[in-house]
Write a structure and sequence with these properties.
single chain, mainly alpha, four-stranded antiparallel beta sheet, elongated
Length: about 600
Amino acid sequence: MARNKDSGGVQATIERLTEKTPCPRYLRDALNKYLYREELFDGASSKTKQMGQLKRPDTDNLVRNLLELDGLFCGDTSTVTALVTGKLDKADLNERLDRIEHGMRQRLEIYSYWLERLPSARAILADGRLNLKEDRLDHSLTAEARHAERAAPVFALHALRIQEESEAKVRMGPPSPTEYLERAEAYLALNDHENADRNACLALEQDARCARAWFLRVAIALRGRDAAERNYRQKSMEAQEIAEPCSSHEQWAREQADEAVDEVMKHQRKLDDILPNALSCWPQAAGLRAHPESWRQVRSIFIDRMFSVAVQDTRWAGTYQQRAAWNGFEPEWELKRQKYPYLHCDGLPEGLPFTPDETQALVDLLTDYDSGPEQFFMYIEDGRLARELRLFHLRYVLRMDGGAAHWERLHAAVTQHAASHQVAQLMRDTSVARIWQMHYCRNLPPSDLAKWYAQWHKDAETRSGARLRHELLRQYAFLYHHQFARQQFHECGQIAAGALGLFDGAAALADWFSGEQHPDDEAVSMPLHRARYWDYLVALAAVEQRKRAQTLAPRAQALLADTTHWCAAFSEDRECLWTESEEYDDGGGEDWPAPPYGVDLRTPEGWK
């Protein structure tokens, strides 16, 4: 004998309220979730799995509201319960409703796109004249003129179906990481980056090492950053080339460009948080890395970013002294402290400029590099030499074993390339150039580096006829400073003499309109384009050699024997002195001449 339906039960209540028989199963399953919530129904207990009581008609409106809200919030039981009991924060409610509205409008646009083209699709497919094996269907579809410009993401219906199927599963219980990933990929296909990232994060809450989730997050962050950078370039070009000068249009475009910069930085910070785990949890296929091109892109971004953190202090990770110790510039620190004794000094650093996740990711990358250097970098990879130098320097910052073998491979890779390629990779970027000099001088004689510079310049002139002296003088200035900080004054004299040879007897180089910023002091500008400045540096090296009773070269002896002549020669400030500057907080500032390295050779006292 069949059991009679309980008139106060779930099925009977829903049939009565919906006037539909039999009771739709999805509504029964939806209501059952809430009947165990003691804060909603009398007698309910989630701990003992006791259902609450449905009392007609007292709970009818509650049941109606629960089912309506369950549909609106896609089966999110916790949100619906908090909303009904008044425990949901207003800001949180508005954020969730904004997401729901965005999703509904997104679906409406996709369905509208196809509704407007269904008559055209019906006619084309029924006609049979379109070759579906060779011709594109979407190019043949037409819509009414007022809707012709409406666009939809490629294969948007597929992504929409995945979303709806996933949301339907939610009503049966919390989604699994796989289901969250399906939804994230669907949102990504619809260019909805915010919801795509949110679902990838929900997958990671259940599986913190989920490779696919980290891969999706890094792809989303890169897309967001690239879009923000394009927007910045577009607004900057609009302000500079399209808008009338001093117009409201120009002001608006510049404000938009500033906002785009903030957006780029927001995406960069997000990317910084994602990159270490994305690399450590990279997807594998048959024992090999999946998406190798994407891996190389992410690897390169991470190496470049960590290099900038360590060398350029883009995070303000430590004091100047700490950064000097990390990067092998302790002598430069001591030299700078002599000039600025008030600089903060708190001893050698105990930590690193990287987070624990970043440190582990770097160790993993270096271990991977050691196990197969030829596979880690492609031979013709864009920017390979500079990037391998950055990776080598990060090993040095970490004080990780294997530095000698890594240097040998790096130096061999550099020498295998043409001089023009070496320059483009290792000399154009100031930070890279200084790090290359530092490591070269640690492993090989500094004089060899100066010879390398001279040979490169000779090859460049022979090949193209170009006089790239400006580029070379900058490297000589960096190298002079590097050796001066280490009290290698004989080499300093040789470097400055080599720089003088580039002037061919001229007093100054043409087409050089300003001084070069000092490598360790932003407030100092150096007149590298004037021959007298390099005479000054030769003389300064000789003075320091004599001061420390070092062996003097014939050129240095001749300089020291004719101090009267050179005092007069150095009397013109702009020819041989640094220019120091100071900017005031309320605007404006001032400049003044200053003798290089604090030694004034314009008077006899400076030579003593």
